[in-house]
Amino acid sequence: MKIWIFMRKELLESWRNYHLLIIAAIFIVFGIEGPLMAKLTPDILKMASTSQMTIKMPDPTSVEAWQQYFKNMTQIGIFILAVIFSGTISNEISKGTLVNLVTKGLPRYAIVIAKYVVAMLQWCLAVIVAFLINWGYTAYYFPDDKSPNIWTGMWPLLVFGLLFVAVVIFGSTLSKSNYVH
């Protein structure tokens, strides 16, 4: 019961600190950007080529759109995740906001679990929304059947993100600030 109450506080805090908005905006851009860049890259290279140098590229397929999506998620998406959640516990400890809650009877494990669940929900929601947007645009731009098993590629990404969130929150409990010297 205490975990649910603290989770509500964490969700409200992530809304007020614009964490939800930042994550949603960035991951929506990732969902749109993958198929769009796969579609436009040959045209951009054609415009950049001169009469002395010609660049020949094969026609883009849905595979390039999915490669772009997974590259963005595993590189920039994980980095954004680390930046946003790096100081979740250490910031509250340094501000002293958890002292009253812990002295009033809130268990410490409830704080850690609630923060992990809220971060996990934000990560899963962002990845799934970006995945669905990317899927829609890829199906629109590339109506080929070259990437039939895209759903199986999403699960390792989700699991890796969940593991990464756990490591970031664990690191936040060990440090006194966002940046450990």
TrEMBL record:
<feature type="transmembrane region" description="Helical">
    <location>
        <begin position="153"/>
        <end position="174"/>
    </location>
</feature>
<dbReference type="GO" id="GO:0005886">
    <property type="term" value="C:plasma membrane"/>
</dbReference>
<feature type="transmembrane region" description="Helical">
    <location>
        <begin position="69"/>
        <end position="89"/>
    </location>
</feature>
<dbReference type="GO" id="GO:0140359">
    <property type="term" value="F:ABC-type transporter activity"/>
</dbReference>
<keyword id="KW-1133">Transmembrane helix</keyword>
<keyword id="KW-0472">Membrane</keyword>
<dbReference type="Pfam" id="PF12679">
    <property type="entry name" value="ABC2_membrane_2"/>
</dbReference>
<keyword id="KW-0812">Transmembrane</keyword>
<feature type="transmembrane region" description="Helical">
    <location>
        <begin position="109"/>
        <end position="133"/>
    </location>
</feature>
<feature type="transmembrane region" description="Helical">
    <location>
        <begin position="20"/>
        <end position="38"/>
    </location>
</feature>
<protein>
    <submittedName>
        <fullName>ABC transporter permease subunit</fullName>
    </submittedName>
</protein>
